[in-house]
Amino acid sequence: MTTGVMLLALVSLVCVGPAASEGESLITELADEVLSNRQTLLSIPWEIYRDTPSFRDVGYVGEFPIKDSAATEIHLSSLQTSRETQGFPPNVLIGRALVKDSLNVTQPPSNFRYTGKGGEEIKHLNGLTNPVGDLTVWQWQRMRWSAAKEWLEYWADRGIGSATRLAIIHSNGDVLYGGCDENTIVYKYNRIVSASGGSQKIVMAAELSPWPADLGWSYNMSSSSWVEGRRADVLSDVSVPADWESTYADCTDPSLGPCSSSPKYMYANSGFIMGTIDALIDMIAELGTTYTGWDNRWFNEYYLKNPATVTLDYAGDLSISLHNMKLGNLPLEVNSTSTGKSIQSKLTNGSICFVHGNGNSFTTLQGVARELKA
């Protein structure tokens, strides 16, 4: 692991404010990140023209050196738990991939999933476009997950119990923290796992629409019929109606991605992943090396192939995804008390730990961020 990553970890663990309540600073940190996210195309990360004139095509760019300004690593968040203030690592490691020096986001614009425009490209004088925007997005994806694997392996090598120590990896620039304390996060994780059968090591967010869209077919196959039963079990455990989506889903615009015929919050969303360190390392091993598709496809396929290892948060209790929700009638609200602000679920009447505003919901997410900071 690089010295920079270790320094970030140490700074996050030691430099905590004595007066802040648990999670309060992270609410502000992620709200600021969302509000400052200009949703611009991802920049070209390669040193393409180091030895080649800019007017000449360069062939495959994937193995060109990465610019220093694009170096990516996992930024460790702090909830300012009592354990952290004593200089120990938290019980739940929380990280997201940011540009190493600038701390800029490394995700494409939230609407990439339906516009297809996520990264910069270069059109050469001979008419060729190289790299195309999709290749730029893929390279940033590759760097994010390589950084995540390195980060997880660093903590595994520290002997902190990688088979039991929990970690969260979430999207950057389009995620808010709702104010749960660490004990609540662990409780919600354990409750979802228990309701799913008890063997699972990983809990992922869910969402209303499969992305890429053809994944909907995989969920409709008879071999995946267990999905509906698990969804029902998880919802029943937190007393959420099986048809809760009928109140909040808005699947009227097919260009934003399909929903099932009766909208169901049932597809895997890689914007939030929580699990034991060793299980997460096993799952993401290919993403930073050999996998050439979109990462969200990988996570959906992995989930469907490994139901005993992975389950989803069907009630949006740990993390809720807002794409294709009714943006004027969200299943959440900002709650203000004497101790600060938090994000509350209208489904469970409890806290929501993370909110992912991808797809068509980013502007609405910024509105929630403003409420948190008001």
UniProtKB/TrEMBL annotation:
> Can you say what this protein is called?
Phospholipase B-like
* UniProt keyword annotations, A-Z: Signal
What span is annotated as the signal peptide, if there is one? 1-21
Taxonomic lineage of this organism?
Eukaryota, Sar, Alveolata, Dinophyceae, Prorocentrales
Q: Which domain of life is it from?
A: Eukaryota
The organism of origin for this protein: Prorocentrum cordatum
